[in-house]
Amino acid sequence: MAPMTTERPLSSAAAQYPHIRSFVHRRSHITPSQQDAADRLLPIWGIPYQAQLLNLDAAFNRHAATILEIGFGMGETTAKIAQSRPNENFLGVEVFNAGVGSLLKRIDEQQIQNIRIIQHDAVEVLRDMIAPDTLDGVHIYFPDPWPKKRHHKRRLIQPPFIALLASRLKPGAYLHCATDWEHYAEQMLEVLSGEPTLQNTAKAYAPRPDYRPLTKFENRGLKLGHGVWDLIFKRK
């Protein structure tokens, strides 16, 4: 089997893309079943973070289009999309234990074969483990909006991060973001439109594509009249 990582110095990449930390470590409740899933299954379906390029074919034991999902939460959407698109690989990146355990439970119970998980900071994963022109798509669904103005600098969707992310997309690959915070949607649209290597697939916001399922939380919000904004851009 080919090695899952490839030795390569990445100090120049680290210098080129300044670090954005869009999360804070805080105590989060993890259930006994989630902890059990993490303990048993992360060694099987997880990929340890390393400052080396990841060999995606070796990680998934096949050659296929690879979609990166950043911040998959409890994994409901990731699992549904992966099941509906079995011919593609899904690489989920999440920092929080409860979410990782929850998705691992879904993988185990539903016998999903095309998901791998990296429990680490997405910026460092992109910068250090994903080669340029590699990804066929990226999903960023409902990232933390950091609604207070003094916290806006913690938002993930900012020009340096989008420049890094766009460089990891193949030409023609897509970036799909979704948020239920209108102000953040406006910021996303401005930042994505300002990245010269990306092109909007819509005039502004895109209709929700069929492959992105509605979550229970989103359905509840829509019934209360809350908006949801999808943005789908492609690498030129």
UniProtKB/TrEMBL annotation:
Residues involved in substrate binding: 148, 180, 215-218
Pfam families: Methyltransf_4
EC number: 2.1.1.33
Reaction catalysed by this enzyme: guanosine(46) in tRNA + S-adenosyl-L-methionine = N(7)-methylguanosine(46) in tRNA + S-adenosyl-L-homocysteine
Top class in the EC scheme: transferase
Keywords: Methyltransferase, S-adenosyl-L-methionine, Transferase, tRNA processing
Similarity remark: Belongs to the class I-like SAM-binding methyltransferase superfamily. TrmB family.
Protein name (database record): tRNA (guanine-N(7)-)-methyltransferase
Source organism of the structure: Neopusillimonas maritima
